[in-house]
Write a structure and sequence with these properties.
single chain, 764 residues, alpha+beta, five-stranded antiparallel β-sheet, 11 helices, 16% helix, binds 2-acetamido-2-deoxy-beta-D-glucopyranose, binds calcium ion
Length: 764
């Protein structure tokens, strides 16, 4: 402070006379002589930041016209312009400052002064302008543009890298020595320094992100340089973030890598990773793997994210073939500074891959079997399948045929020999395709893994079937056929294998007078009419022998029937009939069979009904119910109700030579109870036979025929008839015991009509 004031004193040795109005510095007034209008200065000075309770006098205005009634008037900045009330002047011309001024806000005030007579209000001096200058004191510290400098900067090999520039400004008066001058200081790790004149922060050496990624330190700005005990300071924070460049080599973290891989691992699978280390960020990690001796089994692929070397299996492994793989691998990387190497990690590594043994299923060799065997053989073997356990355990293998449907072949479970169990017939089954299963038997006897192989057995043909005529043996020829007419072309089928070399030969057992056989080249033969003109409905029989050319050859004999047929315009008129005949034998047989079946069924049915007669009453149904059913049966039956065709008198006449019939039987409306008890013990059967005979020779035979039929129905009469009798309006006190005497054939009837306690229970 003392220094400042001293400086101000030195400066303020001026008078400022203008037009007689003199602005004088108060302190100097007494010291200096007055030289009117000698000085052109028209300025007053005041220090900023001066605070005092009373106003401070900053100078005196004087005028030659000054007398007791004279009055000074101030105008301008700080008086009636801008902030008011800063400056005042008293009667004696003393100018006062009433407020603390700040040079950094306003450094110069422009004022006008005039003098006038207090009494007369006459202008004594014209308006004259002068300035009040606020003088600087160092009251501001230098200020950094930013409180925090946050910069990103690439690491790298620099000798003197300029990292950033800082700047601080001091608002104090730069014209006053040191007030606005700035001196920078840095409080940073070793290597950083600042250039004072420019504010550049530099680093001496190489910034390495891998050593220290961020630096944070403080910079200081101070005014009044070279005066360490005075001046103001301020600070800012500097943050330096180093950006990565690829300056570190990728290395293996181990010098040996060992992996265990199951031999059943499928190709394409990632076996494991060769872990690498690289201090650089991932985008700056670009390792190259240079393996040797991978044998085509493995492939090294760079992991996209982690940049490790992945080992990918490319071939199937087999523990039994090769149990371990070794290979060398080198990792390289092109980096920005080739000589940077911190010695961490390994640039080459040895990789060992152990193939682990797996319990594998047995292996068939070959994987598929094709056998051929002559047909008509029922023993022996057709071949052998073979499977072995590929594992070191070399377990035993058991064979079996997978399909249950294969019954003509078997397999020896120990040897794998496939043998024949049943006669092989090519015509039944030409191929036997099946699957053979091989099962490992573990050392402890349990079943282990299994595998399958397909077996194809082709049955070779033997000429064991004779050729057969393909088509009908019933030939038709027109009666008016011309000579050389082809009656038929005979073709042949042979169940045996027919090849291009198969030839059939045809010949007739006996020469025929009317027809001849002409073989064609295509294994067919034509039957040709020799003369033509035949007699209708005559048949010719030809015995045809067909042979093949197999070894041994087989032949068949076929009988051909040639039927002569009337023809109109070449249309055979009997073809349909003959065709019908051909069918009719079978049709007839079928019809006969049907009739027989129906008969048997009917008989069985009737028998069953008869047997059911007794239990009928014990069904638990009401008697009325049963009656209804029985009546309705009678309606269906019809025959017994057909009284028109039923003349009992015929039966009655049988007794004309004996006792007359009982009178009551002829009077009532009874429909059925007209049978009389025979007087004599005579076999009714014989009697009926006699009557039948009579009827047969009677001219009016029709009713007796009907009786005839009735007689038969009666024999197997159903229980239904019994109901009708029961329900008849007749008096039922008839005695049917006589029927017992009619003979064995009427036994059934006697049973039906015989009254006993059992039957009585169902009467009403
Ligand atoms: C002061 O001076 C003015 C003009 O010069 C004059 O008119 C006035 O009377 C004077 N006053 C006194 C008290 O002398
Ligand atoms: C300026 O005034 C303020 C307040 O009155 C004071 O704190 C400060 O020290 C002064 N500055 C100087 C340089 O005198
Ligand atoms: C500095 O800037 C970086 C990015 O430019 C940002 O990630 C970081 O947070 C900043 N640091 C501070 C302290 O603001
Ligand atoms: C890294 O920078 C920080 C902040 O600047 C510092 O504290 C630390 O000591 C530095 N580390 C090294 C290794 O330079
Ligand atoms: C590989 O297997 C062996 C034993 O079979 C075991 O000792 C070793 O630790 C395994 N190594 C790895 C990497 O799994
Ligand atoms: C059996 O296998 C053979 C050869 O693969 C094939 O030609 C034949 O059609 C097969 N037969 C049957 C019935 O599957
Ligand atoms: C047997 O005859 C039928 C019908 O005429 C024919 O389709 C078939 O091909 C014939 N077979 C031979 C082996 O000629
Ligand atoms: C074939 O010829 C004989 C005479 O040789 C004759 O008796 C016979 O009826 C003829 N057959 C036919 C079908 O015409
Ligand atoms: Ca780096």
């Amino acid at each position: 402070m003392g220094a400042c004031i001293w400086v101000v004193f030195c400066i303020m040795v001026h008078f400022i006379p203008i037009n007689g109005l003199v602005v004088k510095s108060p302190n100097i007034q007494s010291v200096l002589h007055r030289h009117k209008r000698e000085f052109k200065w028209n300025m007053m000075y005041v220090f900023e930041n001066m605070s005092s309770k009373s106003p401070i006098s900053i100078g005196k205005l004087s005028s030659s016209k000054f007398n007791r009634t004279a009055l000074f008037i101030l105008r301008g900045e700080g008086v009636d312009q801008g902030e008011k009330g800063i400056f005042t002047v008293n009667k004696l011309g003393d100018v006062f400052v009433h407020k603390t001024l700040d040079r950094e806000k306003k450094a110069i005030y422009n004022l006008n002064v005039l003098a006038m007579d207090e009494m007369t209000r006459n202008l004594l001096e014209p308006e004259t302008s002068f300035q009040v200058k606020v003088m600087d004191i160092n009251d501001n510290e230098p200020k950094f543009d930013l409180n925090e400098y946050n910069v990103s900067f690439y690491e790298g090999p620099y000798t003197e890298a300029k990292v950033l520039t800082v700047h601080a400004a001091d608002p104090d008066d730069p014209t006053v020595l040191g007030h606005a001058e700035v001196e920078y200081k840095i409080f940073a790790p070793k290597g950083f320094y600042i250039v004072e004149s420019t504010g550049d922060i530099k680093y001496l050496g190489t910034l390495d992100r891998e050593r220290n990624q961020t630096y944070k330190f403080i910079v200081q700005a101070k005014d009044m340089p070279k005066h360490s005990n005075t001046g103001f300071t301020s600070t800012a924070t500097v943050i330096i973030n180093l950006k990565d460049i690829n300056d570190n080599k990728a290395k293996f973290i181990q010098s040996t890598y060992t992996f265990n891989v199951s031999e059943s691992t499928a190709p394409g699978v990632n076996i494991g990773a060769l872990l690498i280390t690289d201090k650089d960020e991932p985008q700056n990690t670009n390792p190259q793997f240079n393996p040797t001796n991978l044998a085509g089994v493995f492939e090294i692929v760079e992991d996209a994210d982690l940049k490790n070397g992945k080992i990918i299996l490319r071939k199937e492994l087999d523990y039994e073939t090769r149990a371990t793989y070794h290979f060398q691998i080198e990792v390289t990387e092109t980096i920005v500074f080739p000589d940077k190497d911190d010695g961490v990690g390994f640039s080459t590594a040895t990789v060992t891959i152990n193939v682990l043994d797996e319990d594998e299923p047995p292996v068939f060799s070959p994987k598929e079997y094709h056998f051929a065997k002559m047909e008509n053989v029922d023993k022996g073997s057709i071949g052998k399948v073979n499977a072995i356990d590929p594992d070191t355990a070399k377990n035993q293998v058991r064979y079996s045929i997978k399909e249950d449907s294969v019954d003509s072949l078997g397999i020896d479970s120990n040897t794998g020999i496939i043998f024949i169990r049943k006669l092989l017939d090519r015509e039944t089954k030409a191929w036997h395709n099946f699957t053979v299963k091989a099962t490992e038997i573990n050392k402890d006897g349990t079943q282990g893994k299994e595998s399958f192989a397909s077996v194809h057995l082709k049955i070779l043909d033997e000429n064991d079937n004779p050729p057969e005529l393909n088509g009908t043996t019933y030939l038709v020829v027109c009666e008016d056929s011309k000579p050389e007419t082809v009656v038929a072309t005979l073709s042949v089928t042979d169940k045996d294998e027919m090849t291009l070399d198969t030839r059939f030969t045809f010949h007739l057992k006996e020469e025929n007078t009317n027809f001849t056989l002409v073989p064609n080249l295509d294994n067919t033969a034509n039957i040709i009419a020799k003369y033509g003109g035949f007699r209708v409905n005559e048949d010719d029989i030809l015995t045809l022998i067909i042979s093949d050319n197999g070894s041994p050859p087989k032949s068949s004999t076929t009988t051909l029937t040639i039927h002569v047929c009337p023809c109109i315009d070449g249309d055979r008129m009997c073809e349909v009939a003959s065709a019908q005949m051909g069918v009719s034998v079978q049709a007839l047989l079928a019809i006969l069979f049907c009739i027989l079946t129906i008969l048997i069924i009917t008989l069985l049915f009737l028998l069953r009904r008869k047997l059911k007669k007794e239990p009928l009453g014990s069904l638990g149904k009401g008697v009325g119910e049963i009656h209804e059913q029985l009546v309705s049966y009678d309606e269906e039956g019809g025959g017994e109700m057909d009284t028109n065709g039923y003349d009992v008198s015929v039966l009655s006449s049988a007794w004309q030579n004996g006792i007359r019939p009982r009178p009551e039987s002829q009077t009532g409306p009874c429909l059925y109870a007209t049978v009389q008890k025979p007087a004599i013990k005579q076999n009714m059967e014989i009697m009926i036979e006699v009557k039948k005979d009579e009827a047969d020779h009677d001219k009016d035979g029709i009713p007796y025929d009907t009786l005839h039929i009735y007689g038969y129905e009666g024999q197997d009469s159903l229980a239904g008839s019994l109901s009708s009798i029961n329900s008849s309006s007749c008096d039922s006190d008839l005695d049917y015991d006589f029927i017992n005497d009619w003979g064995p054939r009427f036994k059934t009837l006697a049973e039906l009509y015989g009254v006993d306690e059992h039957d009585a229970a169902y009467m009403y």
